[in-house]
Amino acid sequence: MKITTLESETELWDDFVRSRPTARGPHLSGWKKVIEESFGHTCIYLMATENNALHGILPLVHFRSRLFGSFLISVPFLNYGGIVAERAATRASLFDFARDLAVTRRAAYVELRHAAPLLENVPTKQHKVSMFLDLPERSEQLWNDFKPKLRSQIRKPQKEGLSVRIGREEELAHFYEVFSVNMRDLGTPVYSRNFFAQILKHFPESAWICSILLHEQPIAAGFIFGFRETLEIPWASSLRQYNHLAANMLLYWSVLEFAIKKGYRRFDFGRCTPGENTFKFKAQWGAQPVPLHWQYWLANGNTLPELAPTNPKYQLAIKAWQKLPLFVTRLVGPAIIRNIP
After folding, report:
1. Distance CA 306, CA 324 (A)
2. What is each CA distance from 328 to 22, 192, 195, 218, 325, in whole angstroms?
3. How far is the C-alpha of 59 from the C-alpha of 43, rounded, in Å?
4. In angstroms, rounded to a whole number, what is the distance separating the alpha carbons of residues 326 and 280?
5. Which of 222, 215, 207 is nearest to 174 (CA)?
6. Which tens digits make up the pLDDT trace of 72-127?
7. What is the pLDDT of residue 97?
8. What are phi and psi of 168, to 5 degrees?
9. Domain segments of the chain as ranges
10. What distance lies between CA 256 and its chain's CA centroid?
């Protein structure tokens, strides 16, 4: 088995991704360009070949910062990643190469965001789940499957006169306005607007934005991405002062309608922690949890990383961030979040 890095074979890479049932949208080569052009990280996309045939891939992104250290992630900023290979021997070869790469680059760990336990006898986190909803052929069918309380919550913003727009670059300003405010309120540094612009640029047929507006003012928005039969919503936000209008309910219903209209058969609500409010919100739509398996190589003596906002050591920083003016968070946030996968 020969391990090489992706250079110009993007068509070969993407054909492989589209042909493998375990591959996800974040495995597509376009994300390499998005991450490089948005964050400037070194992307090392590994290819396992044998007899001139591609048998496996592993996209890796190297993070290096004084604050958070050095580590390799597959794939950062997204819910999925890791190795795509049918044979255990191929998976082992890619994992071993990633480990050696980490040692050479003095990385503390390698994190592979698998949807299944592809590697045996390695440290594994199962702290998150993805929430999936199977979609019918017609939106009316899905509507009839909802409980009366859920239908009432969707009707409320419709009766309040909220409007829906789904587009691409023309909705980016609306999305970012809502998203940046929401991230500040959560105490989390915000991605740059360029990050989302790059996604739209490199995925012209599979990325969209849904905006919910009150008198032309955006109060909720979601960024959606499609791959094969699944449409997912990796980023969604709503403004807290308008919670009484239930704009988030109209947002998700509009995206579900859009998914069915586009012919998608499954909707991915994104990852969450079982039992938390986001889990309950997604479950009310009928979504079912599927455990995620984040698997690791750890340098000697290192423990599993914990860069999540729930980590107690970040609580003071979160509270301070929530008090900052919005323009400051938009200016400083991208430089911080680029080092948090």
Report:
1. 25
2. 41, 13, 18, 21, 5
3. 7
4. 29
5. 222
6. 999 999 999 999 999 999 999 999 999 999 999 999 999 999 999 999 999 999 98
7. 97
8. -130, -110
9. 2-126+292-305, 130-291
10. 18
175 Cβ contact list (under 8 Å, min separation 6): 196, 209, 211, 218, 221, 222, 223
* Class at the top of the CATH hierarchy for domain 2-126+292-305: alpha beta
Same fold, 2-126+292-305 and 130-291: yes
Q: What is the CATH number of domain 130-291?
A: 3.40.630.30
The C-alpha atoms of residue 187 and residue 291 are separated, in whole angstroms, by: 27
Which residues lie closer than 8 Å to 297 by C-beta, 6 or more apart? 95, 98, 99, 102, 109, 110, 122
Tokens linked to 174? 């609306």
Tracing tokens 């950062």 back to the chain, one arrives at 76
Residues 6+ apart with CB under 8 A from 63: 41, 69, 70, 71, 72, 73, 76, 339, 341
* pLDDT(178) > 90: yes
Asked if 98 and 47 count as a contact pair (C-beta separation under 8 A), the reply is no
Determine the Cα–Cα distance for residues 76 and 79; give it in Å rounded to an integer: 8
Q: Taking 80 as the threshold, does the pLDDT of residue 194 lie above it?
A: yes
Element (H, E) at 214: strand 207-214
pLDDT band at 317; cut points 50, 70, 90: confident
Q: β-pairing, 266-272 with 69-74?
A: unpaired
Q: Is the pLDDT of residue 166 over 70?
A: yes
Max Cα-Cα span within the chain? 63
